[in-house]
Design goal:
This protein has about 280 residues and is an alpha+beta fold. The protein has eleven helices and ten strands. The strands form two sheets. Strands 1, 2, 3, 4, 5, 6, 7 and 9 form an eight-stranded antiparallel β-sheet that branches. Strands 8-10 form a two-stranded antiparallel sheet. It starts with 7 loop residues before the first helix and ends with a helix.
């Protein structure tokens, strides 16, 4: 069964089951969620910014994104990956082990471990029709258990700025349909406009206008798929002032037009429905 991964980052905290799927040339602006995320780069290279720190992962290699870490992804040329996302409620042992601690590095490159993890992720991709099964849980425990054993973690320090960024991103998500500017957000969070821009750009990896545009496009995409709204209605509902700017930003975020996005997702739903009926 195919996993619709175009919105998985934005919508993940609404899900309670793990997911594992393949992805090509990952791209996503800064965001955070409570789930733990593992990205296994099979070929090519993936660039990421996690809590303001930059990483480059060459395949084969694994990138671990801890719970509530602010993160973004970019593919400079091309990469093929496995993506595993696990809600904390599924892995209480992992949550307990890392509480109050932070990994020294979030990149894992130990060859024997990588081979085992890649095999587990490959099997998990074929088990997503039953994401809550014991087999799925077993493979997840193997992966995260290996990472806990071999990735060094220390007591966490300096969380104030990271917590503030998370508060800012959450506030933006809650108020996407309202006019938001550097001045208004800086005033709301008690910063000067220049200090706010420096803090935001340094941790998020892009300017506020670009971030707002893409997040609104993602919200509109969700409305187009799950509510009976036309393209103009969805654009206006999330705060776009013109269809022209909406189409431009939407294509930047999804690399296709809104109409093509709707058609593609309907086709995927039909394929998934056919697979379920065959099973």
């Amino acid at each position: 069964m195919k996993e619709n991964n175009k919105l998985y980052e934005q919508l993940w905290d609404h899900k309670i089951s793990p997911a594992c799927f393949t992805a090509v040339s990952n791209r996503n602006l800064a965001h955070f969620h409570s789930s733990v995320e593992c990205i296994f780069v099979r070929t090519g290279a993936l660039q990421a910014v996690i809590n303001g720190r930059r990483y480059t992962v060459q395949g084969p290699g694994l990138l671990l994104v801890p719970s509530y870490a602010t993160h973004m992804f970019e593919t400079p040329v091309y990469c093929e990956t496995y993506v595993l996302i696990v809600p904390l409620t599924c892995i209480p042992f992992f949550e307990k082990a890392v509480k109050g601690r932070a990994f020294v590095s979030l990149v894992y490159t130990n060859p024997p471990g990588l081979e085992e993890i890649e095999g587990c992720m490959e099997r998990l991709c074929g088990l997503m029709d039953k994401p809550d099964s014991q087999r799925v849980k077993g493979y997840i425990y193997i992966i995260l258990g290996r990472l806990l054993e071999e990735m060094e973690a220390r007591e966490r320090e300096g969380r104030d700025e990271l917590q503030k960024i998370q508060e800012i991103l959450q506030y933006i998500q809650d108020h996407l349909d309202r006019p938001l500017t550097v001045d208004s957000l800086a005033r709301h969070f008690g910063y000067s406009p220049s200090r706010f821009s420096h803090l935001f750009n340094g941790n998020v990896g892009c300017s506020l206008p670009r971030y707002l545009g893409v997040q609104r496009a993602k919200r509109a995409a969700d409305l187009l798929l799950n509510q009976d709204l036309s393209v103009p209605e969805a654009a206006m509902a999330v705060g776009f002032e013109s269809l022209r700017s909406f189409y431009r930003v939407f294509k930047e975020a999804f690399h296709i037009t809104p109409t093509a996005y709707i058609r593609q997702n309907r086709e995927e739903k039909e394929e998934n429905r056919a697979e379920i009926e065959k099973a």
